[in-house]
Design brief:
alpha/beta
Length: 111
């Protein structure tokens, strides 16, 4: 059976690190991460044994406005009230229709 850890919004890989440290048999899992914040691209590209997609997990394929805040916060959601996001200076990021992607890349037997 194929085992997958899917991380949508991988940030700076905190979830990946925690999963590998604390989850039994973590080495049996494929790790697939999505993150579109350019602040974290280099970090995620340097992690061994993950498949990294530099895209936003979203509801459609295309491009989206992406809002970056102070420190490490960011969001696709315009008007989000947490994170001190800069709504005046969005960047454009590539997005993927996550539902479609999961349907095309996984089977019912996957865990």
């Amino acid at each position: 059976m194929r085992k997958i850890f899917l991380d949508c919004g991988a940030h700076k890989a905190t979830s990946i690190k925690k999963f590998r440290e604390e989850y039994p048999n973590a080495d049996d899992y494929e790790i697939i991460s999505f993150e579109c914040n350019p602040r974290f691209t280099e970090t995620l590209q340097s992690i061994d044994r993950i498949t990294f997609h530099n895209k936003a997990a979203w509801i459609e394929d295309g491009t989206q406005n992406f809002y970056i805040g102070h420190a490490a916060s960011s969001s696709l959601i315009y008007g989000k009230t947490r994170g001190n996001l800069d709504f005046d200076n969005p960047i454009t990021v590539e997005s993927i229709d996550l539902s479609r992607w999961v349907t095309e890349n996984f089977s019912r037997d996957d865990y």
